[in-house]
Amino acid sequence: WYHGTLDRAAAERLLLLQAEDGLFLVRPSGSSPGDFALSVVEGHKVLHLQVHRHREDAFFSVDGGPVVHGLEELVYQGSQEGGAPWGQPLGRPCPGGGPPPPDTRRHGRTNLLHRATRQGDLVVVNELLRVGYATEAKDEEGRTAVHLACLAGHTELLGALLLAGAAPSGPDVSGRHPLHYACEWEDADMVKELLSAGACPQARDVDNGWVPLHVAAARGHTNVVLALLDHGAPARPRTLRHELPADLAAQGRHLDCVHLLESYERPVSSYSRSSWLHPPHVDRECATRLLSTSEEGTFLVRRGRRTSYVLSLAGPTSVFHFEIHSQGPYVHIDDGPLLSSLEHLVSHYGNFEDGLPVRLVQPLPPDEPPPVGPRSPTSQRQTPTLTAVVSRDSLRLGETLGEGEYGSVLQGVWVTPEGTEVSVAVKRLREVSAGEGFAREAELMVDLRHPCIVRLLAICLGPPLMMVQELLPLGSLLSYLQQGCPVDLEEDVPRWGHQVACGMAYLQARRFVHRDLAARNLLLASRMQVKISDFGLSRALAMGSDYYRATTGGRWPLKWYAPESVNFGTFSHASDAWSFGITLWEMYTLGELPYGSLTGVQVLALVESGERLARPDGCPDWAYAAMQHCWRMAPDQRPNFSDLAALFAAHSVRHLCAGCAELAQ
């Protein structure tokens, strides 16, 4: 019944030769590329019905009717009594047609490519691809060769299929996408292949509402979970039974996975709230009027009547309004993921449609900024206090992650008072004499809550004295850089710079001086998220003072220190800015040692003579200018961290930090 070369006039002539009610054919649409037309005889006339193809795989609807999976399924339903909304049931297909294109079908037949893929025969698959074998053909279960490669765990074969242009996504008869099958395996490379080819991490299994992250979490594949999170997948999507990935991981007792999912917080990558939040007088009618002449994807957020907020969005043909609901500390739209704030919601739907008619593309700014108020449900949560000092028996220590001046950092497991086992990093003090100061600093650190600062969870009075901190799986940024791990100087480094500047701006607002900012003291939760750690040298400034003067000695990281810190032992936010410039230089050089083999005394002489570190290869002009600004001799001429955060935000592509928005509060 498919006639791939006929236009409207030719179809009409062919059908009227026999003029039999119900005689039909399907052809490409002449007015809408990618769509089809259903031409059917009714009472000596030909009806031409538009068959609209929906974005995802082989889903079709006739003139706005129900969406059906597969052209063959649409034809079958139209041939049943009462199954044709247009009136005339489909009867006999017009002679001379053939089968529809493979990518329009729900079901197919097993072919040679399917068999070779199941068997993992790369030689045969490559030969079939070389001669142009159709990669979109489906077997009896509606699975393409890409589905079958993922189902069998053939990563290399999957790469060959994707390289040949095979589609990376689309549901089979059971509603599962290739990414669902790939997440069954503990192979992050297979998942990354699909994501790089355009697979959507939010594709849902229609039977249970699972997205790929649910599958990976249920299996306890932490490396696969990280790959999905790094690609932008939200950490809290919900199944049809309202289960989160962390719930499924907990059911399987995959505790490392539970901790990762519960502690993961994505920096937002959206416009600032002032660019999309409209004042209370903007109601539904006003929002519709404002957006009715806007480009597709233009949006605003406004106050709602039944809910706190409403997202209004210019779609392909009309303006849509979506209520934003609150659930505990989170917000969500319909059955979408739970997100930490309005900023996170805007960021998420800017990356994925995820049930909306289109992605959020650009905000429609209000005429005047909205009044400052509570920023989000997240910001209204009470800051948790330090867990009661934990006993040594509640900690199980594992391998050493690193050694420092005052002690070592070990991987461990903390058994909480509720009996939950949490993977943690444990910082163990080596010198008993420093214990009092160590505990005092821990008490100060416990109030620090920021997505770009490593969290202190508890302290143990020992002996030895220990700090229990969140575990960041990728370790120090310096090691990551020096080990040759993937780094995009145009995207990763500006994002890291922005996140570090946001964390330091947060410290500055709370009158903390870090004193040891360096790549070795930055830890990676993922490639997309860096956090500031190691507050061993940090101090809180006294009220009324802009600097701290060290009165004790010790081994100081002089190559990262500002001249006034080396000469006079004074530390301030300005000296931290100097260290930030050195840290940026480390990032752009992929972990080289600043000043090479020069001693601290030689470095000081070099700096005081006006010399500075050279511009690294691949470092853009604006970033090197920021470094030089940080390295000005006069402390009051160095930039503050809020300005640095704004600078790096302007040059970052995505995954910015939500925390800098909180500084205005």
Using brief descriptors, characterize the structure shown.
single chain, 665 residues, alpha+beta, SHC Adaptor Protein, Phosphorylase Kinase, domain 1, 5-stranded mixed beta sheet, 23 helices, elongated, disordered C terminus, kinase, EC 2.7.10.2, tyrosine-protein kinase, Tyrosine-protein kinase, ATP binding
Note down, in words, how this protein is organized:
ANK repeats lie at residues 141-173, 174-206, 208-240. It comes from Amblyomma sculptum (Tick). Residues 363-374 have a biased composition (Pro residues). This is Tyrosine-protein kinase. With 665 residues, the protein is of the alpha+beta class. Among the domains are: 8-79, 2-Layer Sandwich (SHC Adaptor Protein), CATH 3.30.505.10; 274-363, SH2 domain (SHC Adaptor Protein, 2-Layer Sandwich), CATH 3.30.505.10; 392-470, Phosphorylase Kinase, domain 1, CATH 3.30.200; 476-544 and 557-663, Orthogonal Bundle (Transferase(Phosphotransferase), domain 1), CATH 1.10.510. Helices cover 31% and strands 17% of the residues. The strands form six sheets. It has a five-stranded antiparallel beta sheet with strand order 1-2-3-4-5. β3 (45-53) and β4 form a beta hairpin. The longest helix has 18 residues, at 492-509. The termini are far apart. 46% of the residues are buried. The model is unreliable at 368-387, 540-554 and 658-665 (pLDDT under 50).
